[in-house]
Amino acid sequence: MTARPQDAPVLEIRGICKTFPGVRALDEVSFNVGKGEVHAIVGENGAGKSTLMKVLAGLHAPDGGKLVYNGQEQSFTSPLDARLKGILLVHQELSLSPELSVAENIYLGAWPTNRVGVLRKKKLHEDARAALQALGSDINPMTRVGELSIARQQMVEIARAQAFNANVVIFDEPTASLADTEKAQLFKTILELKERGRSILYISHKMDEIFAITDRITVLRDGKYQGTETTAETDIDKITRMMIGRDLDAYFHRAKSAPGAEVLRVEKMCSSDFSDVSLSVHAGEVLGLYGLIGAGRSEVAESLFGMRQIRSGTLYWHGEETPFPKPRQAIEMGISLVPESRKEQGLVLGMNGRENTTLPHLSAYAQAGVMVHSREMQTYREYVDLLDIRTSGPDQLVATLSGGNQQKFVLAKWLCGHPKLIILDEPTRGIDIGSKSAIHKFIAGLAEQGLAVIVISSEMPEILGVSHRVAVMSEGKIVAEFTGADQTEENLIAAVSERRNVEAPEEGSAERPPVDARAVMGGQG
Amino acid sequence: MDRSSAVIALVRRHGLIVAFLIFIVLVSANSPTFLTVGNFLDVIRQTSITGMIALGVTFVVITGRFDLSVGSMLTLLTVVVVDQHNAVGPGLALLFVLVGGMVLGAVNGLLIGFIGLNALIVTLAMLSFLQGLTLLYSGGANVNIADAQSWFALFGRGTVYNIPVPVLIFLASAAAASFLLRKTIFGRTVYAVGGNEVATRFSGINSRWTIFLAYVLSGLATAGAAIIMGSRVMGAQNTIGQGYELTVLAGVVLGGTSLIGGSGSIWRTVLGIIMLGFIQNGLLLLGYPYYVQWLVTWFVIIAAVWIDLGAKRGRLFA
Ligand SMILES: Nc1ncnc2c1ncn2[C@@H]1O[C@H](COP(=O)(O)OP(=O)(O)OP(=O)(O)O)[C@@H](O)[C@H]1O
Ligand SMILES: [Mg+2]
Fold it and tell me: Which of A133, A222, A371, B139 is the most exposed place for a label (fewest CB within 10 A)?
């Protein structure tokens, strides 16, 4: 991969500052983005990456500094303004309107109209279809966005880049919820955009992706610019040191405990989303649940926690047959579920971290129905320290926390009740590499204390690294289970593709680092 | 975009209060009685009825829902308390009305919380239903309390150290409601349900119960208001509570409680209701007829909802 000449920058970022109440999110950040360059922005959770991108895309006005775009100083008054001028942000959290159609979303704010202002539906649909096709996507522009999977919704966001002929496209953690094939498609799209001379800003916590597709890497730390490196001339260790200011003890931590007594077993559990699922998990054991996105893993997890209707099946809790619980009963039995989507299922965004943390266990923090503030604060402080959560104080609403720090509050919320079984659905989504290995260590620690743990992840290295045993799901069924020496990447890929008849991506491609690289990259999966 | 949303946020937090203070200055420049202790107590006394109802409605609004049935519920309960006062005496009449308010609230709560029907429709239908029920109960006649010396008069007309009893009831209820909302498990779940119902259910909280109880409280608060109303008038007409649902809503949103749910507080509601009371009182003192207050209600609701939405999407215009 060649670094592009830096003498013709498309975008010059000069001394940008942005302060929120209690935090200096960006402190004099300056760097250039070249034409036809894929430029990574990396940094810990809360480093200011998303904030910087929002400034570039016209969502936030900077407090200081300036943007020079195509040689001219610019200030964008709104996202639409920025988009019309050629800068487009694909959000970390998807931002489409679920009630509108795909085409309407792509052209949101710039719908084609005739002279009297009537929407030209046909043109809208044709244009949208063209934009989608250029990306190799077969999504019907007339579909309601709410009916699409997350990956497909993201495709719609990317189609905006195509539709607005964007010069600079910003991706904020685009792969967090993509399946491998979709990821490959995304990278292809990015490289195509690059070939056409577009500039791409790419935020991710996944180092393998960054080293696979970017030309240069800019590092932020605590809102400050740390430097820009040419990807081909640097390595992960150096970037990590710039990010977190120390070396990373980046190996997976697998619990050293031997599995004890059985905690949970289900037999032939069926619902509308999966069938005949049988699995068991023991105290001190980490069970990995691997599968492609859409395989039914989250549905299984939610069913065990009582959020979904079960058709048939038997559940044994500590060896005793027990009816499938409701969420409240599940919590009381000692089952925790860290759900898949932090914004929809995990957090009440309008509440602060303390209130979110104690929400599932209110009666433990109350006396005769009255909340005991000091008890809540104690737990809040304990978990903020334990998980290294960056907030400006206990009153900061989780809505204004960075994505990774939000995720940590979801973890805090489900750990502070001291569960016996914890189900973690994509627990490290959006979490930086430093914290990620901390969380893996933490998971191992939980198992060593005797908890039963189920980890769902689409990241193969993560699953292989933390689990004692891996069950593979495909199309609503458990298709294989591996332990010990059988627990290998090849076996998991084979198990998944056997049923799906999908070609496994070739070894060493961006989304599956080769085995030896995994040891080096450790924590980031 | 960011700057304009900061301005909107500022307007949302303080703008209405600033506008209100300007209004106060204007009115007091034109009416010597406006800024007197007597007038002040008068306003607070008048607002105690809307205020009582608003306390309950605040719970409902924070869950992200509406209660438009409180106006005709007020009518029915006032008619009942007065009529039962004559029939079974003041003590039992009070009991009937308090239980009745909770039952009516519970019906709303069942339909909305447990069956999941749309709150706007359910409470609007309840409004109509209770209008009919009132007429059915009273046969269309106005009722008056026969025994003018009844201790029942205390609630609407009494004073303690020159402070009107309804004001004391209102403030004590507000303190209790505030405690319930801010300090208890139930209060926490009210905010959670309004903020994100899905995440609340994922936290093992039965959001149905929370919604149900919010409506029960709304009914209970309305019963409290009916007692004050019946006691103040010592009688009841079949239209006595007409329009209260929107006045109450105007007070709640004027205080800054968001109709989107998930945020707001009792003190905001108290502030909003009192501000609204002063606006109406000021207009009367300036010589406008009483029905101008309906125009004010319109203005307040539109402004508050608009600013709320503006703050959420970062700009005032679509
Ligand atoms: N609207 C806001 N109000 C207050 N603080 C905010 C707001 N938006 C962001 N912040 C704060 O600014 C800091 C930077 O946040 P930002 O979202 O840019 O981090 P990030 O680098 O994208 O992190 P992540 O990797 O977790 O997504 C954080 O401390 C965050 O809490
Ligand atoms: Mg971010």
Answer: B139
Which residues lie below 8 Å from residue B279, measured CB to CB, with a gap of 6+? B20, B23, B293, B296, B300
Token code pair at residue A218: 């800019």
Neighbours of B234 (CB within 10 A): 18
Residues 6+ apart with CB under 8 A from B36: none
Residues B184/B177, Cβ–Cβ less than 8 Å: no
Superfamily of domain A248-334+422-525 in the CATH hierarchy: P-loop containing nucleotide triphosphate hydrolases (3.40.50.300)
**Ligand 1 pocket: which of A16, A51, A59, A349 to mutate (most atoms within 8 A of CB):** A51
What is the CA A144 to chain-centroid distance, rounded?
Answer: 24
Query: Can you tell me the distance from the alpha carbon of B192 to that of B62, in angstroms, rounded to the nearest whole number?
Result: 9
Whether B40 is in a domain gets the answer no
Residue B105 covered by a domain: yes
Measure in Å the smallest separation between the Cα of A420 and chain B Cα atoms: 16
Cross-chain CB nearest to B184 (options A339, A344, A369): A369
Determine the Cα–Cα distance for residues A81 and A407; give it in Å rounded to an integer. Answer: 31
ipTM: 0.85
Tens-place pLDDT, residues A214-263: 999 999 998 999 999 999 999 888 898 888 877 666 567 777 777 888 89
Return the structure tokens found at B296: 């004010």
Q: Which pLDDT belongs to residue B305?
A: 76
User: Residue A326 CB: number of other CB atoms within 10 A?
Assistant: 15
CATH at residue B52: 1.10.3470
* Residue A507, phi then psi, degrees to nearest 5: -50, 135
The closest residue, in CA terms, to atom 3 on ligand 1 is A400
The alpha-helical segments, DSSP class H, found in B184-243 are 185-195, 197-202, 207-233
What's the gap in Å between A204 CA and the centre of ligand 2?
9
Q: What pLDDT, in 10s, does the model give residues A160-211?
A: 877 777 889 999 888 776 767 778 878 888 888 888 888 999 999 888 899 9
- Extents of the domains making up chain A: 11-244, 248-334+422-525, 345-417
Contact between A451 and A421 under an 8 Å Cβ cutoff? The reply is yes
Q: How far is B183 from A369, CA to CA, in rounded Å? A: 9
Contact A443, A424 (CB under 8 A): yes
Distance CA A468, CA A256 (A): 9
Residue B296 lies in a domain: yes
Matching CATH number, A11-244, of 3.30.950.10, 3.20.20.140, 1.10.10.10, 3.40.50.300 = 3.40.50.300
**Which residues 6+ apart lie within 8 Å of A165 measured at CB?**
A86
Ligand 1 mean position to A461 CA, how many Å? 28
Beta-carbon neighbours within 5 Å of ion ligand 2: A 50, 92, 402-403
Partner A contacted by B206 (CB < 8 A): yes
Instruction: Look at A59 and B2 and tell me if their CB atoms are within 8 Å.
Output: yes
Separation CA A186–CA A205 (nearest Å):
16
Spatial distance between the Cα atoms of B72 and B238, rounded to a whole number of angstroms: 9
Contact at 8 Å (CB) between A67 and A36? no
